[in-house]
Amino acid sequence: MSHVDISERAFGAIFLGIVVYFGLVIYGSFANEPLATLAAEFVFGVIAIGLGTLLYAVANATRSVLFGAAIALVAGGVLQFGYLLSHVLAVQQASIIDHASSIAVFVGIGLYVYAVWFDER
């Protein structure tokens, strides 16, 4: 089993983003602070797009599992920003966009785990 080659600096930034995300989610939940929750949703989108971009850069082929993970993560991040915009504009379908974003990110993470586990590039 091989790992995907991502620089330590990029890995550190992703890890920090995940820590900040969970910190904001926990704080927003306990303090009932909508701004912290909104910030967590924004960080979620940034992490998804950032990780997807990194995976796209290291994918060897456009028909690889890693490429699929990259596309799913970027799509999830873009959908997350669409959700934030629709939430601000009070669009009725905001929850559908939020669910689609979460599903796309989970698919991307699942494909990434599969690619690393089975060394698929």
What would you note in describing this structure?
With 121 residues, this protein is mainly alpha-helical. Helix content is 80%, strand content 0%. The chain has four helices and no strands. Helix 1 runs antiparallel to helix 2, helix 2 runs antiparallel to helix 3 and helix 3 runs antiparallel to helix 4 (94-117). It is globular, with a radius of gyration of 15 Å. It starts with 7 loop residues before the first helix and ends with a helix. The model has no long low-confidence stretch (mean pLDDT 88).
Question: Summed up, what is this model?
Answer:
This protein is mainly alpha-helical. It contains four helices and no strands. Helix 1 packs antiparallel against helix 2, helix 2 (34-58) runs antiparallel to helix 3 and helix 3 runs antiparallel to helix 4.
